Amino acid sequence: MGDAARDPSPWLVVIDPQAIFAASDSEWGSPFFDAAFANIRRLAAAAEDRVLVTRWLPTADRTTSWGDYFAAWPFADRPADDALFDLVPEAAGLSPHPTIDLPTFGKWGSAIERIVGGRPVVLAGVSTDCCVISTALAGADAGARITVAVDACAGSTAENHAAAVRVMGLYPPQIALADTSDCVEVLRG
């Protein structure tokens, strides 16, 4: 935390840039992934080495509501090392830090907090209406300062993306909404 007090530079957290959300033949593939990822690359260039990338992996515990979830989405009921859960090739070089792998929608927690400390976070990734919103709300609850780069997020549909953005917009000042150009300036300091 001492480093965070000396360095107020924001971090970029890229949520789940994985094949399962990018592939057009995946039931969870976002038709907006490519456009969002072009903006994610711009953000990562501005953030330099202050980039974290997360990955959603299926839980092995099917005794919880996750068992019901995988019954509803059997195509995703695969081992965690299945290629469907790999990062898209373009995401592999976004961060010098290890990927944060979690079996939860929301990625905010001790792994991210340990690295970013109290510094502001720019959030981008997929899916706006699932893992991004879950991460943003948990970050806000934890007291983080989150800016969501809206055009660097991809929703399952345009309507679901807009609905998630609307909900996140209800949480100022913990969550701010911005476009990639504004977030690039924030990340460059």
Automatic annotation (TrEMBL):
Family annotation (Pfam families): Isochorismatase (PF00857)
PANTHER family: ISOCHORISMATASE-LIKE DOMAIN-CONTAINING PROTEIN, PEROXYUREIDOACRYLATE/UREIDOACRYLATE AMIDOHYDROLASE-RELATED
Organism (species): Leucobacter ruminantium
Gene3D superfamilies (UniProt xref): Isochorismatase-like
Keywords: Hydrolase
Protein name: Cysteine hydrolase
Keyword Disulfide bond: no
Keyword field contains Hydrolase: yes
SUPFAM superfamilies named among the record's database cross-references: Isochorismatase-like hydrolases (SSF52499)
Isochorismatase-like domain: residues covered: 11-168
GO molecular function annotations of the record: hydrolase activity
